[in-house]
Design a protein that fits this description.
CATH topology: Factor Xa Inhibitor
Structural class: mainly beta
Helix content: under 10%
Number of domains: 1
Distance between the termini: 26 Å
CATH class: Few Secondary Structures
CATH architecture: Irregular
Shape: globular
Strand content: 35-45%
Mean pLDDT: 93
Length: about 190
């Protein structure tokens, strides 16, 4: 038995970016137009890249007459993006720690303070990812996300203080599109 192998369809996301925008911001509809200025580039991402996951929760239906499942009922769908933000900046810290902003403690002091809230607000955003493999360009937009988890930040002398975050997709405001992917790989059709 032989199969067809097409190594051109093996994709490496060797260079990429993550951007966040205020909720309701439209994402790109092509691969050449620059991202709107509302989309903020969150800078360097750890070398693990971005881990995207889509999960379908199901309930099995079994019957007395069979040993195997006869039907599955979908009970939930989730999509997440997990990554490590390496840059501590005016976008990443408020996002990871639940809102707010940096402010100078007194005018001209050069000392900045960021207050971590004990009651963070729901910070709904739009998320955009872009990655490139040679001449192939991919853009994924998740119109509604929020930070669902911030992992440990390890402060030590031999590694960067990465901020591990997980973004959770939320149901679309209308329609059924949880996310969309654009690319120029015409072999997909």
């Amino acid at each position: 038995m032989s199969g067809t192998i097409n190594t051109d369809q093996i994709i490496f996301a060797s260079n990429g970016y993550m951007r966040l925008a205020p909720k309701g911001t439209s994402g790109p509809t092509d691969l050449t137009t620059a991202w709107d200025s509302a989309w903020k580039d969150f800078g360097s991402i750890g070398d693990d890249g971005v881990k995207l996951q889509r999960k379908v929760d199901t309930k099995e239906v079994k019957v007395w007459q069979q040993l195997t499942t006869v039907k599955y009922h979908i009970t939930g769908v989730s999509m997440t993006g997990q990554l490590k933000l390496l840059e501590w900046n005016k976008y990443t810290i408020p996002f990871a720690f639940g809102g707010g902003a940096w402010a100078e403690t007194s005018l001209g002091s050069g000392v900045l303070r960021y207050n971590v809230s004990s009651q963070p607000a729901v910070d709904e955003r739009a998320a955009g990812f872009e990655w490139i493999d040679g001449t192939l360009i991919y853009r994924m937009v998740i119109p509604r996300v929020m930070l669902t988890e911030m992992g440990d930040i390890t402060l030590k002398n031999d590694d960067s203080a990465a901020i591990e975050v997980t973004l959770g997709a939320m149901a679309p405001a209308s329609g059924q599109t949880l996310a969309y992917l654009l690319c120029n790989d015409t072999s997909l059709i």
